[in-house]
UniProtKB/TrEMBL annotation:
It is an enzyme of class 3 (hydrolase). It is a single-pass type IV membrane protein. This is Mitochondrial Rho GTPase. Keywords: Calcium, GTP-binding, Hydrolase, Membrane, Metal-binding, Mitochondrion, Mitochondrion outer membrane, Nucleotide-binding, Repeat, Transmembrane, Transmembrane helix. Gene3D superfamilies: EF-hand, P-loop containing nucleotide triphosphate hydrolases. It is found in: Mitochondrion outer membrane. It comes from Drosophila rhopaloa. Its EC number is 3.6.5.-.
């Protein structure tokens, strides 16, 4: 996949404006022909310089303007289409210099922002580049005819730059002697590709707040050991990731000396502090090396507006119908490293403050600490804090139900930089479900179970019981938070799998279910065994949505510690299950504190076509005699191995009988 860097603009459009006779057209023709033209037309035709001959390797269009041949409307349209405007003046003509502030700069501002212009220009606005919204178009001031004088106008121009932040740079040149011609167009390119104004405030002589915020995030991501310092190892990694080259020890020492000299607390214990890091980038910009800071920002996903690029946050991911998304091994290892970095006290859990610090490189946390992650994943039951296991569970849940959000937050946390790859390396797309069904087993490691039943049936308690070691603690507890997913790991055939329980309410027996509420890896239909009217709900749901589907189904009767009531339905639950070839109802109670139900559900999801075989095994009393139908979850998966073996044996016997019959004929 390769490392991903936010892309810069794919082309540059430069517009030259200025008073008549200042030499705009001559500058363009001298650049193209590399010699001064003796005859100069009123206006040069638009030219495009190929990418391979420009310093920044970007195709560049150069556009001339002539008041003689073009109207003011045409000028407005060209200003809006241009990425940068070069205002040309003649260094030997003070009037052309004065007109920069009295005419040209106000004109460019007004045409870029029609609300500032008395007449506006709807057509130009429609044709213009979208960057021209209440924005200051980058401007380069160009003093031509430097060959005619023996002094400089730079002092006057620098004074203008202080009043107009959109002026990126200024240069004196000569179309006649070709002096600084290439540099002039390079500065114009640079003003578009590596603009100063998003990074630096000329008036205050410091970084913009957006630039500071971006660099602070970058500093935190590069601070691998979390000590708020960048040591030599971390600085070298930073250098390699941004510029694909190591930082030489001598250069590193020189950098530290410069920081120490200018910012006393910029170096601490021979490592760079955040203040030192920010100063270094401020120094780059002040010395005209914007491209260095922009290279860093783009490597970390920022666009020209210092916002995270959508392409960086959301790389295209193809998910075939019937496939699902899981964390890959690399994704899990990265998230483990992030957890351990912010688990400052090393207690194996994230406190609310540690959790907040962990997501300080993100716009916000992807979930609520108090009402989401602590209610949907395993936690440290003493402190109520999220354990490493619970942390990975919550990411596993998000990756299955909202993989786009996972890729976004992996980018915010620095996966692209640390792993030198796109976030897609952290995602595993499973094979299609139809292939799992054909092969009679699932290759997935994450299964989605929909727990469906009437309100008050005890399904929420059953879901929450999946997260705790001692279910007795949940007895009598009122579940107020609206958390619909619970996730934990279970063992299926000796392998760790994640099971996601989604709590789905059915308020009335005839209420329809949406397709996204029906489709899952295994369905768990829950009724209250102590309520005579509860089973009707799940019976109707099964007949309407699951009787003809290939989704494995288990019916669960909760509150089995209470008096079991006869159900007001055509059939009792056991009869219903026998008729529809389902496993007998599983009786569940928080008071029993038995968790074999979750293992059964995960096993049924892993082997979706073995339901008939499970029933066959259940009916044979000798299985109970040998302990295979006990409530011990460890033995439940052993029974599964027997089912698989028996099924394969059945195929072999069937083939043998068929072959024998064919031979006898």
């Amino acid at each position: 996949m390769g490392q991903y860097t936010a892309t810069q603009r794919k082309n540059v459009r430069i517009l030259l404006v200025g008073d008549a006779g200042v030499g705009k057209t001559s500058l363009i023709l001298s650049l193209v022909s590399e010699e001064y033209p003796e005859e100069v037309p009123p206006r040069a035709e638009e030219i495009t310089i190929p990418a391979n001959v420009t310093p920044e390797q970007v195709p560049t269009s150069i556009v001339d303007f002539s008041a003689v041949e073009q109207t003011e409307e045409a000028l407005a349209a060209e200003i809006n289409k241009a990425h940068v405007v070069c205002i040309v003046y003649a260094v030997d003509d003070d009037d052309s210099l004065d007109r920069i502030t009295s005419h040209w700069l106000p004109l460019v501002r007004a045409k870029c922002n029609p609300s500032l212009d008395g007449e506006g220009d709807a057509e130009a606005e429609a044709e213009g580049d979208t960057q021209c919204e209440s924005v200051r178009k980058p401007i380069v001031l160009v003093g031509n005819k430097i060959d005619l004088i023996d002094y400089s106008t730079m002092d006057s121009v620098l004074a203008i730059m202080e009043d107009y932040p959109e002026i990126e740079s200024c240069v004196e040149c000569s179309a006649k002697t070709l002096h600084n011609i290439s540099e002039m167009f390079y500065y114009a390119q640079k003003a578009v590709l590596h603009p100063t104004s998003p990074l630096y405030m000329m008036e205050e002589q410091e970084l913009t707040s957006a630039c500071k915020k971006s660099l602070v995030r970058i500093f935190k991501i590069c601070d691998i050991d979390g000590d708020n310092l960048l040591n030599d190892y971390e600085l070298n990694l930073f250098q390699r990731r941004c510029f694909n080259t190591p930082l030489q020890p001598q250069i590193l020492d020189e950098v530290k000396v410069v920081i120490q000299k200018n910012v006393p607390d910029g170096i601490y214990n021979d490592a760079v502090t955040l203040k030192g890091f920010l100063f270094l980038h401020c120094l780059f910009i002040q010395r005209g090396r914007n491209e260095t800071t922009w290279a860093v920002l783009r490597r970390f996903g920022y666009n020209d507006q210092l916002e995270m690029c959508q392409e960086y946050l959301r790389p295209p991911l193809k998910i075939p119908p019937g496939s699902s998304t899981e964390l890959s091994h690399r994704g899990q290892q990265f998230l483990i490293a992030v957890f351990e970095r912010y688990d400052r006290d090393g207690d194996g859990a994230l406190s609310p403050e540690e959790h907040k610090m962990l997501f300080s490189t993100c716009p916000a946390a992807p979930w609520s600490y108090s009402t989401d992650i602590r209610k949907s994943c395993p936690i440290n039951e003493t402190t109520g804090w999220v354990t490493l296991h619970g942390w990975l569970c919550r990411w596993t849940l998000m990756t299955l139900i909202d993989v786009v959000k996972t890729t976004e937050y992996l980018a915010y946390l620095g996966f692209n930089v640390h792993e030198n790859d796109s976030q897609l390396a952290a995602i595993h797309v499973t094979r299609e479900r139809r292939i799992d069904l054909a092969k009679r087993q699932s290759s997935r490691s994450v299964y989605k179970c929909h727990v469906i039943g009437p309100k008050g049936s005890g399904k929420t308690g059953m879901c929450r019981g999946f997260l705790v070691e001692d279910m007795h603690k949940l007895i009598g507890k009122e579940f107020k938070t609206n958390v619909v997913h619970c996730i934990n790991s279970v063992q299926v055939y000796g392998q760790e799998k994640h099971l996601i329980l989604r709590d789905i309410d059915v308020r009335h027996a005839l209420d329809p279910l949406q397709p996204q509420e029906v489709n899952c890896d295994v369905a768990c239909l829950v009724f209250d065994s102590s309520n005579p009217r509860s089973f009707e709900y799940v019976a109707r749901i099964y007949i309407k949505y699951y009787a003809e589907s290939k989704i494995p189904v288990m019916i669960v009767g909760t509150k089995c510690d209470m008096d079991e009531r006869r159900q007001d339905y055509l059939m009792q639950p056991a009869e219903f299950c026998e008729k529809y070839k389902l496993l007998p109802p599983h009786l569940f109670s928080l008071k029993t504190n038995k968790k074999e139900l979750y293992t059964k559900l995960a096993t049924m999801a892993a082997f979706p076509r073995f339901q008939a075989a499970w029933i066959l095994f259940y009916k044979h009393s000798h299985l109970r005699q040998f302990g295979l139908m006990t409530e011990d979850p460890k033995l439940w998966w052993k029974a599964g191995l027997g089912v698989a073996a028996a099924t394969m044996l059945g195929f072999i016997v069937l083939k043998t009988i068929s072959a024998a019959g064919a031979h006898s004929r």
